[in-house]
Amino acid sequence: MTTLDAAFLARLDALLGPGGVARADADALAGIDPGYHPDNLAAGVQASPRTVDEASAVLALCHEVGVSVVPHGGRTGLVGGGASRPGQIVLSTRRLDRIVEIDTAARLAVVEAGVTLQQLQEAAAGHGLTPGIDLAARGSATIGGLIATNAGGIEAFRRGTMRNRVFGLEFLGADGTVVSDLVRVLKNNTGYDLKDLIAGSEGTLGLVTRAVIRLERQVTPAATALVACASAEAALTVAGRLRDRFPGRLRALEILWHAYAETVAQEHGVSLSGFGLDPAPVYLLTEAEQDPDIDIAAAMEAEIGALWEEGPVTGAALAQNERQREMFWRIRDDSDAVSRPCPDAKTFDVSVPLSALPAYVERIRSELAAIFSPDMRVYVFGHLADGNLHVMIGDRPPGSMARIEAILYDGLAEVGGSFSAEHGIGLEKQDAFRRYGDPARRAAMAAIKAALDPKGVLNPGKILG
């Protein structure tokens, strides 16, 4: 069906009550932010259940009449995983927003899917704990969305991705059946691990409703530094030394190529030279946590000083106060700032083994310049310790996307990398998935989709097309 009939909408209203259904034809969607994809709310109907039972009833109704459902969390996805169209409904978890429990003894939290990462961080911090995952969209990204996309972020190199942060999971099957495995223990060897299957499935196999999240002891940052490096190879040397010097204490190792760092800094009214840094090819943003046995700030300053004498480091600025620390992080986090001077900038997301990373960046920059223009704006930054790079490209000629993707993705699989590190497949990377994904793996995924969602109700058209 391409439009939703009145009988279906009446049943949906009856299930969710006042405020539970928003429609474009009643202007109720006008005040809702569509997020990062223009078609996120194109369905024109958004259902917002308040309880798991209501969400289950909505899915059961949609399964019965053949209406497909597009799950939404914070709408921060970058590959069209939440895009919808007329004839579908959007199912938002925004009202499934309870933090059910913080168990300090077991260091875990039980939360509903609509809780934002920042809400969980703040609640856990009240007990001296942290969920062990962090990313720039923390204020809007939901726990359910983070699981559905297997989000990574800043701390993935030491805490793992979202899949590693989940003890137990409750989700709804395509027909509304509640599948509950809310275990609270690490060791649970009881057959197929369905939570690992749902994590990263982008809402195509089930709708996350509740989760048990592992927590870690929260430790206050003791030193934050923005380090100028002579080259990408030098940055790897610095990163390796810092990891060896501060084992278990490094919270972040972020890499920023010069064009990205300088552009974001300027958009915030500061310059890197204002921090005492001369222009450098790349910069590292690193942060270490307090240690009761040593003065971390002094130790980091000494280690960076030694690296400066040896050559990999050409300059460094250690944050002198919280305001300066926040500015360093703003330069790293605010990739949206690039879109102001470069409105057509398109973000790509890859993983590259560390040994291949410097050559990879040099290759793509030289090929983009040779094939398109030496003036094409290319901004590169990412999570150095796990090889996850974000590449933002502006000044793209019409019809150039396929060629750009070939430059960025060719050869990645051969060196053990990935054309999608943490953004997923959604709509926008399906061509790449067909070209670079293993056919047998795709076939296995299609079989799983057909078994769990035979009517194709859950987020159809995403990942597999």
From TrEMBL:
<dbReference type="Pfam" id="PF02913">
    <property type="entry name" value="FAD-oxidase_C"/>
</dbReference>
<dbReference type="InterPro" id="IPR004113">
    <property type="entry name" value="FAD-bd_oxidored_4_C"/>
</dbReference>
<comment type="similarity">
    <text>Belongs to the FAD-binding oxidoreductase/transferase type 4 family.</text>
</comment>
<dbReference type="GO" id="GO:0016491">
    <property type="term" value="F:oxidoreductase activity"/>
</dbReference>
<dbReference type="InterPro" id="IPR036318">
    <property type="entry name" value="FAD-bd_PCMH-like_sf"/>
</dbReference>
<dbReference type="GO" id="GO:0022904">
    <property type="term" value="P:respiratory electron transport chain"/>
</dbReference>
<dbReference type="InterPro" id="IPR016169">
    <property type="entry name" value="FAD-bd_PCMH_sub2"/>
</dbReference>
<dbReference type="InterPro" id="IPR016164">
    <property type="entry name" value="FAD-linked_Oxase-like_C"/>
</dbReference>
<dbReference type="InterPro" id="IPR051264">
    <property type="entry name" value="FAD-oxidored/transferase_4"/>
</dbReference>
<keyword id="KW-0274">FAD</keyword>
<keyword id="KW-0560">Oxidoreductase</keyword>
<feature type="domain" description="FAD-binding PCMH-type">
    <location>
        <begin position="38"/>
        <end position="218"/>
    </location>
</feature>
<dbReference type="GO" id="GO:0071949">
    <property type="term" value="F:FAD binding"/>
</dbReference>
<keyword id="KW-0285">Flavoprotein</keyword>
<dbReference type="InterPro" id="IPR016171">
    <property type="entry name" value="Vanillyl_alc_oxidase_C-sub2"/>
</dbReference>
<protein>
    <submittedName>
        <fullName>FAD-binding oxidoreductase</fullName>
    </submittedName>
</protein>
<dbReference type="InterPro" id="IPR016167">
    <property type="entry name" value="FAD-bd_PCMH_sub1"/>
</dbReference>
<dbReference type="InterPro" id="IPR016166">
    <property type="entry name" value="FAD-bd_PCMH"/>
</dbReference>
<dbReference type="InterPro" id="IPR006094">
    <property type="entry name" value="Oxid_FAD_bind_N"/>
</dbReference>
<dbReference type="Pfam" id="PF01565">
    <property type="entry name" value="FAD_binding_4"/>
</dbReference>
